[in-house]
Amino acid sequence: MARVASFVALARQAAKEHPRLVVGAQLAVLVIFLGSVAYFLRGSFGAAGDDLGNANPALLALSCVAVAAYYLVFVIGWMKILADWGVRISYTTSLNSEIVSMLAKYVPGGVWTPAARVVAMRRAGVNDAALVTAAMLVEAGLSAVAGVLVFAISLAWVHGVNGPVIPLAVFAVVIAILLYPRVFHALATRFLHRIGYKELPPMRPETLVGLLVFYAGTWVLGGVGLWLMLRSLHAHPSPDKIVFLGGVSAVGAIVAVLAFFAPSGLGAREGSMYGLMLAITSSGAALGATLLNRVAITVVEVLLFLLGALVLRRRERRGSRGSSPGSAAAEPAQRP
After folding, report:
1. Is residue 13 one of the residues assigned to a domain?
2. Per residue in 245-274, pLDDT tens?
3. What is the mean pLDDT of residues 96-118?
4. CA-to-CA distance for 234 and 289, rounded, in angstroms?
5. Domain span at residue 77?
6. pLDDT (average), residues 113-137
7. Is residue 55 part of a domain?
8. CA gap 99, 93 in Å, rounded
9. pLDDT, tens digit, for every residue of 194-232?
10. What is the rounded distance in angstroms from the CA atom of residue 243 to the CA atom of residue 153?
11. Is residue 19 part of a domain?
12. At 1, is the pLDDT very low, low, confident or very high (cuts 50, 70, 90)?
């Protein structure tokens, strides 16, 4: 452990002293990775191009609406997590902070996503960076476990899936153990004490269970979007495949987080989703839907950022005239 700690310390020091070298190394890894993905998928690009050229515009538009609905519902979970720790924020604040951090994923390196969320919450009047960071860990962990559960349940009626089922199960179990209230509270408190922060309040088990069910529902909603994308490419997956496709989206999101060297998991997310969708559709449709999904989530994230920044924020300010921005965006909540 001492050797690992010293290695990590040396790596951090080298990153601070040579930031350009670190960025260059990340870009080199990204180029090699994307080149490998393109090489292994080279035989599917022709079929995908034909499918994309004949895509159904109406179904494609509906799929983008479903993707947007996923984001608009997902941000409610952020509000619930903070509320359980005594901080109430508006829906607009939650949407803005979520989308800003999601857009930050397009910058190489894993530090920008939490940093963007902390800054966005600070602008909204929530200055406790430790609490915001811990809430992000809870959100990411619960969403990941819920996604793996959705994927696992769908395997009861979807067969022939060629994917890392056992590693995903182990990953979900480990995350679930770390999120257990007593375990998470003990680990978070120990870490925060080392860097001089106060102790976090414990999260109630019923809140965790409710959020787990909630995030599972959001993944199913994401599966609707992916199902509509496949239908727009004239593939014909039955409606009972929606849950499986929600699990596919979850696996892609998990892989994207683990592939920190790639902006927003570019290539890693697509590779994992493509491989899993081959169980229910052709290679051309799977690749086409994967590419459409990447474009859709990027466009939707940008549009939702503009919606939150220009429209909803303006309405919120009009409705809160006479009060301070901080008090309008965030206020303490009373624990029952």
Report:
1. no
2. 999 999 998 888 877 666 666 777 888 898
3. 83
4. 11
5. 41-332
6. 88
7. yes
8. 10
9. 666 666 777 788 888 899 999 999 999 999 999 999 999
10. 8
11. no
12. very low
Per-residue confidence (pLDDT) for residue 184, from 0 to 100: 79
Environment class of 106 (CB within 10 Å of its CB; exposed 0-12, middle 13-18, buried 19+): middle
Task: Name the one residue in this structure whose structure tokens are 């963007």.
Answer: 116
Q: Structure tokens of 60? A: 């494609």
Distance CA 136, CA 121 (A): 12
For residue range 309-321, list pLDDT tens digits in order: 776 566 656 555 5
Helices (H), the chain: 2-17, 19-40, 45-53, 57-84, 91-104, 112-123, 129-154, 165-179, 181-194, 205-232, 242-258, 268-277, 283-306, 313-319, 325-329
| Total of domains in the chain | 1
Contact 246, 272 (CB under 8 A): no
105 Cβ contact list (under 8 Å, min separation 6)? 112, 113, 256, 263, 264, 265
Q: Phi/psi at 54 (nearest 5 deg)?
A: -110, 20
Q: Is the pLDDT of residue 329 over 50?
A: no
SS3 state at 335 = coil
Question: Does residue 25 fall inside a structural domain?
Answer: no
Residues 6+ apart with CB under 8 A from 198: 130, 192
